Amino acid sequence: MAITKDKKKQVVDSLVEQIKNSKSAVLLDFKGTTVSDLEAVRGELRQSKANMKVTKKTLIKLALENAGLDTAGMPELEGEIAMAFSQESEIDAPKIIGSAIKTKKTMKILGGLMEDKFLSIQEVIALSTLPTREQLLGMFVGTIAAPVNNLVWGLNDVVGRLVRTLDAVKNSK
What we know:
The chain is of the alpha+beta class.
């Protein structure tokens, strides 16, 4: 059943709104992917307050143009296309889609959007490998705590050596 012009306009307006409100988006070809696999990816996206929209290629291109993006540098959209949007963090959608692609070989990244610019496949994959904010904070705390940890181990070692030396002197007499 064909979609009416009014329905197409609603879909395009909805996409424009999501493109403008999201911090990043990933264009995904999911041809050959089962519905259950796609629903699993959608569930993961929902957990991180991201979402995915499956739409016709022409409507996606029209929405991108209406959002003020120059579609000349955009890759050709082939296959069955979905867009995953990140509302809270720039890396949520790329990270989830990147991990889904590793397990579900039927999906492939076509590109992405961030800060009103198109991202290549390699840039989206690079985003997907970045650590999360919490992981970065953990690494930072570990880095800050390392000198103090080393000082405690060093002082403990000096005291331990002194005790062992005194014990050896006591045992030799």
